[in-house]
Structures are given as structure tokens and as C-alpha cells.
Specification:
The protein contains 10 helices and 11 strands. It has 313 residues and is α+β, with helices and mostly antiparallel strands. The termini are far apart.
């Protein structure tokens, strides 16, 4: 058993060194996030402190993997918001709004094993992460992990840059196939998001100049009722020389909307990772460096297929 453990540890160290070497090589070639930011005249100032995340350094790789798997469940993310908001309680009934009592007990036992909460013999519980005051930073970590694990991207989250106004943090930045991707993550439902926040997002897009920008709202509610009208109003009120006046917000599918296949507004209905993948696939097909750069150029090919350039309104 000890021999196997030493062998696994040696293999893990070898893979870590190889991964570090590959990252250094990518950076030297100019395809990494630091180089992308430097070319835009931006300097990384700081990233989110680990004390503000539910995920902590004391967790084992297996525990982090289990937590990542659970974060794919929308009901679990809603439940975590209540845990962070309440911070402690004498029973579990107060946090069973989005899941059954049995699931609530299971989730609480899992967090207890991970060192995130403490459970008393009588059923009382309390959060052990005093620096965690909102769910937003942990949601950003989750989105960053999706890009890293499922899209093989170099990624950072909770980023502050030395940049001109409007300031604010850049929630998730990723380098995907040489493109700079910016994701704004909102853990509040649409009713808690105002036009000023969307305007701040657009302002940060102007400063950052990403190839792809996503405004993600972690909800199953409709984007068409509030988020899309706010975006349309802001784009319509843009300065004449901004280049935004002629851009229209169009539906890609379900509650995923886009502007010129480069700016997306989306919710997390069905599967958050799947919605991100949908946006990324659409962007790469329309804007990526393919043989033909636009879907309209393909026409009805192969013969007999529908024209690919038709958008849904």
C-alpha cells in the first residue's frame, strides 16, 4: 500500500512539472492570459483571496472533485446560498426550500466532511468559513473550473486589474484557442440585477476588449423578461461613435441571447456547463479561424442541407 502511495505521489509530481512546463511554453509563445492582458495595456493587480471561497486548501483532491460534481446541480447551488446567508441554525428545516430534507442532510454531512460546516449532536450547524460572505466568489470558482476542466482553458477568476474606470472585478477570464473570454457571473435572480450592473459589464468589456463576453445569470428564470430589454436599451443608448447602435440582441436558443455572436446573455437552465459550451461553440463557428469564417459563406453545404446562416429571432 505504501509503495502504491509513493508511486502515485511521484506520478502526480511528474505531471505537475510537465503541466508547469507546458504553461511556461504557452506563455512564451504569447498565447497565455498574462500576454493577452499585457497587449491590452492591462496589469493583473490581484485575484480573489482563498478565504472568500468555500473551497479551501485543506480539502483533498477527491473532496474538491466531489464538490465540483455537486456544483453542477442547480438545487445544490440554491441550497448553498441559504447556508451562506443564514451561516448557522438549530435545525435543517430552514434550508430545505430547494431540496428534500434527506438531500439537505446529505449535503450538510458532505460539507461537514469537507471542513466547511460543523454539525452539533443535536442537529445545530454553523458555517466554518468566516471569510465567505456571499455565494458569488464560489460561483466564479465553479465557472472557472468548467473552463479549465471541460474546455481545456487557461483561466483566472475574481480578477482586479490596474485599469481605467469603470473598475470593478472581472469575474472569470479565460484563454481559449487564442481568444480572450470574459464571463460576468451573477448569483442573484434577474429581479436583483439592475441596469447599472449591465452597464458596468459593458464598460469593462470596453476596457478589456475581449473576443467573447458572457453575462451569466445563475437562474432558471427567463432572460427575455428583464435582462434582454436592459441590454437592448443600453445598446440603443450608446454613443453614435461607439459602434453599438446597429447591433441587435438575437435569440440563439432557449434563454441564450447574443449580439453579433460575440456578446451573450444566458441563464443556467438545463445545465450551466452546457449553456457555456453552446455559447463557445457558436462563437467559434461564427468568429473562429475556420476555413470559412462565417456561416453565411457555407451556404447550403453539403447539398440538400438548410442554410446555416439563418438566425432565430
Amino acid at each position: 500500500m505504501q509503495v502504491c502511495s509513493r508511486r502515485l505521489k511521484a506520478q502526480n509530481n511528474l505531471l505537475s512539472r510537465r503541466n508547469a512546463f507546458l504553461e511556461r511554453t504557452v506563455n512564451r509563445l504569447g498565447g497565455g492570459l498574462p500576454q493577452m492582458l499585457k497587449r491590452r495595456g492591462l496589469i493583473l493587480q490581484r485575484t480573489v483571496g482563498p478565504q472568500r471561497l468555500l473551497v479551501h486548501r485543506g480539502m483533498s483532491p477527491r473532496a474538491k472533485e466531489e464538490f465540483y460534481r455537486l456544483m453542477h446541480r442547480y438545487s445544490f447551488r440554491l441550497w448553498l446560498r441559504d447556508v451562506i446567508r443564514l451561516r448557522e441554525g438549530n435545525d435543517l428545516e430552514a434550508i430545505c426550500s430547494y431540496c428534500s430534507a434527506s438531500s439537505c442532510r446529505e449535503y450538510m454531512e458532505i460539507l461537514s466532511r469537507m471542513g466547511m460546516v460543523q454539525i452539533q449532536p443535536g442537529g445545530a450547524w454553523r458555517l466554518l468559513r468566516p471569510g465567505v460572505t456571499s455565494f458569488g466568489e464560489t460561483l466564479e470558482w465553479f465557472v472557472a473550473e468548467i473552463f479549465r476542466r471541460e474546455f481545456c482553458a487557461q483561466v483566472i477568476h475574481g480578477v482586479s486589474l490596474r485599469s481605467p474606470p469603470p473598475g470593478g472585478d472581472f469575474d472569470v477570464l479565460a484563454a481559449v484557442e487564442g481568444f480572450l473570454v470574459y464571463v460576468e457571473c451573477k448569483s442573484s435572480p434577474p429581479r436583483g440585477i439592475e441596469a447599472e450592473e449591465m452597464a458596468g459589464f459593458l464598460g469593462r468589456c470596453h476596457v478589456l476588449a475581449p473576443n467573447l463576453a458572457l453575462f451569466l445569470v445563475d437562474t432558471h428564470l427567463r432572460m427575455l423578461d428583464k435582462m434582454v430589454p436592459i441590454l437592448e436599451e443600453l445598446l440603443g443608448a450608446a454613443a453614435p461613435d461607439s459602434g453599438l447602435t446597429c447591433q441587435r440582441v438575437q435569440r440563439l436558443e432557449r434563454e441564450i441571447f447574443h449580439v453579433e455572436h460575440t456578446l451573450y446573455v444566458l441563464n443556467s437552465a438545463r445545465r450551466l456547463a452546457g449553456n457555456l459550451r453552446c455559447c463557445l461553440m457558436d462563437f467559434l463557428r461564427c468568429k473562429g479561424p475556420g476555413i470559412l469564417k462565417t456561416r453565411e459563406a457555407l451556404g447550403a453545404w453539403p447539398p440538400g442541407s438548410p442554410v446555416l446562416g439563418n438566425d432565430q429571432g
